[in-house]
Amino acid sequence: MNSSDKKTIYVDNAATTAMSKAAIDAMLPYLDGVYGNPSSLHTAGQVAKEALEGFRARIAARLDAEPGEIYFTSGGSESDNQAIRSAAINGAKRGKKHIITTAFEHHAVLHTLKKCEREGFEVTYLDVHENGIVTAEQVADAIRDDTALVTIMFANNEIGTIQPIAEIGAVCREKKVVFHTDAVQAAGHVPVDVKAMNIDMLSLSAHKFHGAKGVGALYVRRGVPINAFIEGGAQEKGRRAGTENLAGIAAMAAALDEACENMASVAKKERALCDRLISGLSKIAHSKLNGDRIRRLPNIVNMCFEGIEGEGLLLHLDDRGICASSGSACTSGSLDPSHVLLALGLPHEVAHGSLRLSLSEATTDADVDAILKAVPDVVAYLRNISPVWEALEKGEKEHLI
Ligand SMILES: *Cc1c(COP(=O)(O)O)cnc(C)c1O
Asked: In terms of CATH, what superfamily is 3-17+263-394?
């Protein structure tokens, strides 16, 4: 397998992104220079505090939130945990112990909900349609008098489908149920407006839009109760103790500004590249695009190829300098197929043969050309040595896609 192009083609941006130059530049003064603790009363502390509040206001503005509604956290997982645990505890105080979600959330949501179930909460997992979308009607039908929370992701991290968040938000607001959305894949990629979409709580993570790892935010609408899960100092209005990651927050503000300013042009470019990938890879026999063709993030393509294992495909692509994923980074290393693909109703055998390509503004036409050459070659090679494929070819097994 000799590759003429030695450059790494990184198409795993849903797992994490490279930091942008603007984000790194924004971070540097807080690593080297402004080192005060924002909680200190002296000048060095107050300089840091003023900077912190400036970043909070900038991030809030990008979501159409108020600065006082933004709490800094260590990332998407922490924000999801805090939002859900808090809504559950506050719901239970009013006798509400029912939560609504979908079967294809991120594990930061699903595992938190499992914990709630062990503590006596009842969780309704809405069925996801074959196209990777849940509807506001499904949410409306599932809401009960004792529903404490609806938590539904904005955009799915494996297949990229975008949920009807504004409609779901309208249903929840009308029925006075708290609505949380994990917008980790959406923020900085598609427009997010917490007011217009009636969102009560929203999670985001900087490293998914070219900021640093280990920093994120939780938006909580004023008036919605939010509990602390890390005890200690009075940072973040007592809702999240711990000296703030000022450098990371600086980079997050810069990365979000940059992503929002360039959103339309980047999305246009990514969408064109994804369209090429979808039409090129769909030519592979017995392949399938996962998730809705239209209502999707501009940068994620997820396909299944029958008769192969996703892991084998990834390793061979990596040999050719292509960094991709089979879906969730969190399940890699386990042999279970993705819970997201199973939620769409794909059979286990098919779900095993998945490939996720997640692009960024750095992805080029030449990268797409290289992928469109490598994937069919590797799929053909793997099918050639696959007993499952042999059985399919001999007619001993029925093709499923
Ligand atoms: C990456 C991701 C998370 C976790 O965010 P971290 O900052 O890595 O903890 C949560 N939800 C979704 C949808 C994600 O893609």
From this structure: Aspartate Aminotransferase, domain 1 (3.90.1150.10)
41: number of Cβ within 10 Å: 8
Centre of ligand 1 to C-alpha 394, Å, is: 43
CB of 81 sitting under 6 A from ligand 1: no
Tell me the pLDDT tens digit for each residue of 74-120. 999 999 999 999 999 999 999 999 999 999 999 999 999 999 999 99
Rounded to whole angstroms, the Cα distance separating 326 from 329 reads 8
Q: Counting atoms of ligand 1 from 1, which one is nearest the CA of 216?
A: 7
Q: What is the pLDDT of residues 43-70, one digit of tens each?
A: 999 999 999 999 999 999 999 999 999 9
The domain spans of the chain are 3-17+263-394, 21-261
Judged by DSSP in three states, 206 sits in: helix
330 catalytic, yes or no? yes
Ligand 1 contact via 157 beta carbon (within 6 Å): yes
**Same fold: 3-17+263-394 with 21-261:** no
Residue 394's contacts (CB-CB under 8 Å, 6 or more residues apart) are: none
Q: Is 216 in the pocket of ligand 1 (CB under 6 A)?
A: yes
Cα distance from N-terminal residue to C-terminal residue, the chain = 29
* Closest residue by Cα to residue 210 from 263, 153, 251, 271: 251
Strand partners, 179: 150
Ligand 1 proximity of 205 Cβ (cutoff 6 Å): yes
What pLDDT is stored for residue 119 in this prediction? 96
Q: 157, 203, 331, 332: which to mutate for ligand 1, most atoms within 8 A of CB?
A: 157
Q: Would you state the CATH architecture of domain 21-261?
A: 3-Layer(aba) Sandwich (3.40)
Lookup result for tokens 């800094």: 72
Task: Give per-residue pLDDT as tens, 358-388.
Answer: 999 999 999 999 999 999 999 999 999 999 9
* Residue 328: per-residue pLDDT: 54
Q: Where on the phi/psi map is residue 114: left (φ > 0), alpha (ψ -120 to 50), or beta? A: alpha
The HSE-up count of residue 331 (CA atoms within 13 Å, CB side) is 21
Which amino acid is located at 112 in the chain? T
> Phi then psi for 254, rounded to 5 degrees?
-65, -40
Question: Confidence class of residue 339 from pLDDT cuts 50, 70 and 90?
Answer: very high
